[in-house]
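Retro notes
What went well: the complex prediction finally ran end to end.
Inputs used:
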Amino acid sequence: MSTPLRNRRIRLAARPHGEPVPDDFLHDVVEMPSPEPGQVLLRTRYLSLDPYVRGRMSDAKSYAAPMEVGDVIVGGTVSEVVESAADGCSPGDLVLSYGGWQEYSLEPADRLRRLDPSVAPVATALGVLGMPGFTAYAGLLAIGKPQPGETVAVAAATGPVGSAVGQIAKLHGARAVGIAGGEDKVAHLRELGFDAALDHRAPDLPGRLADAAPDGIDVYFENVGGAVWDTVLPQLNEFARVPVCGLAANYNATSLPEGPDRSGLLMGAMLSRSLTLRGFIQREFVEAMFEDFLRDMTDWVADGKVQHTEDITEGLERAPEVFVGMLNGRNLGKTLIQVS
Amino acid sequence: MSTPLRNRRIRLAARPHGEPVPDDFLHDVVEMPSPEPGQVLLRTRYLSLDPYVRGRMSDAKSYAAPMEVGDVIVGGTVSEVVESAADGCSPGDLVLSYGGWQEYSLEPADRLRRLDPSVAPVATALGVLGMPGFTAYAGLLAIGKPQPGETVAVAAATGPVGSAVGQIAKLHGARAVGIAGGEDKVAHLRELGFDAALDHRAPDLPGRLADAAPDGIDVYFENVGGAVWDTVLPQLNEFARVPVCGLAANYNATSLPEGPDRSGLLMGAMLSRSLTLRGFIQREFVEAMFEDFLRDMTDWVADGKVQHTEDITEGLERAPEVFVGMLNGRNLGKTLIQVS
């Protein structure tokens, strides 16, 4: 009988108050059982770190049930089959899974998507060819509906969603304006082909945005909220569309900002300019659009029309600090942990 | 040579600060010239008073250019042709026009819609068969998209837009919840067939709304903003749609409400429940939907499936006080001034 596998895990020790701190995470090790019939035992190769996970650490009502204290932190993974008790899965197979912040996981084989390393590097299944890329594709095309000649703006534009938004907008004939924090990110946006790239940390963002979008903004893909949104809102054109995908600026907030209460002003802006604001989660579009996405995006990546960047850190134990850094914008591209 | 006609008018004397006061209006009388070729001289029979006019009295950026101080106050009218210098128009013809707050107006004949008194009382062209009815029809069907069994809520529900929203929702198989101010209005909503009718002035609106919409709210047709919106927002279901048609509660506001700033909370609600908020003005839907509207609504009114109420005051000179009263909810149904 072989030595049981030891599974290193990171669990939610406490619900964070504001920015997560080390004590909110519990690192432990447990023995890993063997797969039951229909299951496979997976070893995590890459773990995806995503902003939405901060929301699931809280118990506020949201689109997904919150994690419970004690749960392994959730996250998408690219994993390798180590042991299979399911037909059609063999050791060595690489799959897309949702294994979370741990080294090993057991999954029903029928919930896994097989990955072909010859099509694209497997890590892209967590980024440009995975959930973030699809979020960009579905939100931009189904809600933003950019038309040739229109202006599309996006913040957190070097992130895996934002960078895809800008590049897909360009492929649809729109002008892409990217907003990001820091000169290195702005330089990266220029390399990606954005028509304009703005550092939100530099002075006079409103004036620079007006220069970068002289005809106003037709689509704003909302990833961040906060001060950038306050700058964009007055520059939205009549009939502008705003896919609301994330509000990273608010995720660690512990209280509401001081007044006055500008929520009525926001409603008034929608009314006076016939704006559309639409919150969304990519999963509602999976059935209608995922197949098209995978075909289009695989082609675009293969042809170099959509570039992608992975920001990879080695070692599961570093996931908490890298996660907090990502919430603070210290990543460039898709944030991944190389677990094994 | 006949005595020239004397035209009584009401002009914008000053931009109101908050609620309009008598000194904001200038009553005067001028001689009326004869029509030029292609024009008709109209005598106003009914003048429509509408909340959007309050917005045009201000110089804030909005969907329509503001009135200038000195302009005749704008408004839709049902008018009678008094003198015609245009082919196809004869004295006695009744037309829909945009004559404003005055007894007579000159209009190009090609901008008028002929009214047939045998189809419906002509005053309905300013209400259920006119702009307010079309606003309800287009906003509800194109943006709200109520499905059978869903719950549609509307405030200012006894107004010409709100009452049509609720009744059209019922005709599409949805449950209609009306909100209005005062017991007489609530009783009227019950007569109109609303499934539930709530007085927003009575205590515990949130609790009563939850009882009236036990499965949550799928469509909220936004006419008023303010406290009613604050009550509705937490009760919106995932994927709820909010056509933003008016914000009457804010129109006379002179400053923003005290904090905290809840605009980020509003964005968060959109994100966590995949809400759609969409500001609109009926005119964007005219080309696509007005013909269908006129056919459907004429049938519904003729068949008694949509009821309508006009709240008519005699005398142009009373327009300012009636207008302010309407902004404060002191009307039941479509507010009209009978001018002649």
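What we learned: Chain A touches chain B through 46 residues (CB under 8 Å).
What to try next: split runs per interface for comparison.
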